[in-house]
């Protein structure tokens, strides 16, 4: 298979070959210093999240379903995480193959102008995640200090550290591997031992009826990194190192993180608002919890940096450091204004409904469709309107099974999809998975377009 071309006019841009850094503008060939350990450590750190601990609540008790048994919740976590992480890892292969950031890769799928649509959507989701992460870091600090100290100051400090890390992103990845990963591993091991010493219900005490919605919840968290993966794997030495580093690092860490979240939730009756109290309640818990709070900055770092990479697809000549400073400031200001997490679960599902089918379309067309001949990712790449069709079909399949519930959409959006369910006869059941149905719908439609395209080429 011929590797697709990178962005036009590539130039080697690493000033220091001993400590190469990410390019400052879009049309510069990226250095590739990251090996398996770098990628595995980076993605392992992203797989551990304070949001993941509390997010385990939506696996344990999926919306509209009774509480799952511990065995069902663990199984749902493993299945959803591995499937979602596999999507992230495959997305990372595209970054390693092309050397392009994630949103610039979509120039090959949609054409340059049309790629601006998913780019804007990704900017919105990355900014939203960045705000969530800075707020969670602040909540973690407040949990350790019993609410003492000004909220705005914690947000400001977390935002400043986040923004500083984005200025030299490859240096930050190396820093995470050398120091942070070990400290996080020790902290996670300590909490695992402490929580397993507590009384827990029987593995089979509970229900399996919400198993697939729980899988979707775990999968959606992993899938949120699909449109970010190539921003980091473009710096990998090989596709094998990027794929296995991502898959092993992230899936292991998220499964472990959710397992701790499930155990902690069971200690507080499933109340996600009290989950931090569980960690702080064990002996010397605040020391290890502090490590996890500080480490959370790598989540906000990834969201701010990937926002800058997305904006680069729109403004390819602007210095990424300027973009990072501006975006870091914006996310910090927004985090000072937002403190409502009531729509977090719906936000996850909305992300899944957009990016699960988009990944399916991207992967199928890259490996089995026009990508086999090489995508045009230049500034003048022609628009491919037809690729919106499978993406829209996949999005519709997801919403038919699991309509998004968000403030402001409460009237029109669910009612629209309820009417569509009645018209099509499609209704969610305990065996339907919005993510998997969406993926197969979009992927099958894209494969059909690829077959038609090959038949026309043969006829010509």
What order do the helices and strands come in, and which of them pair?
Blueprint: H1 36-47, H2 50-55, H3 57-60, H4 70-98, H5 102-110, H6 112-144, H7 151-167, H8 169-196, H9 211-223, H10 230-233, H11 239-267, H12 275-281, H13 285-295, H14 297-314, H15 320-337, H16 344-368, H17 388-401, H18 412-424, H19 434-459
Helix pairs in contact: 1-8, 1-11, 4-9, 4-11, 4-16, 5-6, 6-7, 6-13, 6-14, 6-15, 7-14, 7-15, 8-11, 8-13, 9-16, 11-12, 14-15, 16-17, 16-19, 17-19
What would you note in describing this structure?
The structure is a single chain. The chain has a domain at 36-344: Hydantoin permease, CATH 1.10.4160.10. Helix content is 69%, strand content 0%. 53% of the residues are buried. The model is unreliable at 1-15 (pLDDT under 50). The protein contains 19 helices and no strands. Helix 1 packs across helix 8 (169-196), helix 7 crosses helix 14 (297-314) and helix 7 (151-167) packs antiparallel against helix 15. The radius of gyration is 22 Å and the shape is globular. It is mainly alpha-helical.
């Amino acid at each position: 298979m011929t590797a697709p071309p990178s962005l036009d006019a590539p130039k080697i841009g690493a000033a220091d070959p001993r400590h190469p850094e990410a390019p400052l503008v879009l049309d510069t060939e990226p250095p590739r210093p990251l090996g398996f350990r770098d990628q595995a450590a980076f993605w392992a750190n992203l797989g551990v999240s304070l949001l993941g601990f509390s997010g385990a609540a939506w696996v344990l008790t999926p919306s509209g379903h009774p509480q799952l048994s511990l065995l069902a919740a663990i199984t749902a976590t493993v299945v959803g995480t591995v499937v979602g992480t596999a999507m992230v890892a495959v997305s990372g292969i595209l970054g390693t193959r092309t050397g392009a950031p994630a949103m610039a890769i979509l120039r090959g799928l949609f054409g340059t102008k049309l790629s601006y649509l998913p780019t804007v959507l990704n900017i919105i989701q990355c900014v939203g995640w960045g705000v969530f992460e800075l707020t969670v870091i602040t909540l973690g600090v407040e949990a350790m200090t019993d609410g003492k100290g000004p909220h705005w100051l914690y947000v400001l400090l977390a935002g400043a550290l986040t923004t500083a890390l984005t200025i030299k992103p490859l240096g930050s990845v190396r820093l995470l591997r050398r120091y942070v990963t070990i400290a996080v591993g020790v902290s996670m091991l300590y909490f695992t031992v402490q929580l397993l010493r507590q009384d827990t219900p029987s593995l089979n005490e509970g229900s399996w009826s919400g198993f697939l919605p729980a899988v979707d919840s775990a999968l959606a968290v992993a899938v949120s990194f699909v449109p970010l993966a190539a921003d980091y794997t473009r710096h990998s030495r090989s596709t094998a190192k990027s794929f296995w580093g991502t898959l092993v690092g992230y899936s292991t860490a998220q499964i472990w993180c959710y397992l701790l979240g499930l155990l902690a939730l069971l200690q507080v009756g499933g109340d996600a608002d009290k989950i931090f109290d569980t960690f702080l309640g064990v002996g010397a818990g605040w020391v290890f919890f502090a490590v996890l709070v500080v480490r959370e900055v790598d989540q906000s770092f990834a969201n701010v940096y990937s926002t800058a990479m997305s904006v680069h697809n729109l403004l390819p000549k602007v210095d990424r450091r300027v973009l990072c400073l501006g975006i870091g400031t914006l996310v910090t200001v927004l985090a000072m204004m937002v403190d409502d997490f009531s729509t977090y679960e719906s936000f996850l599902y909305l992300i899944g409904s957009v990016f699960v089918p988009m990944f399916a379309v991207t992967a199928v067309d890259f490996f089995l469709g026009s990508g086999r001949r090489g995508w045009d990712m230049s500034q003048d790449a022609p628009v491919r309107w037809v690729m919106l069709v499978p993406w829209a079909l996949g999005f519709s399949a997801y919403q038919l099974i699991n309509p998004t519930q968000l403030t402001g959409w409460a009237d029109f959006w669910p009612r629209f999809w309820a009417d569509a369910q009645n018209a099509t006869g499609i209704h969610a059941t305990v065996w339907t998975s919005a993510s998997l149905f969406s993926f197969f719908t979009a992927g099958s439609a894209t494969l059909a377009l690829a077959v038609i395209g090959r038949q026309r080429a043969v006829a010509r």
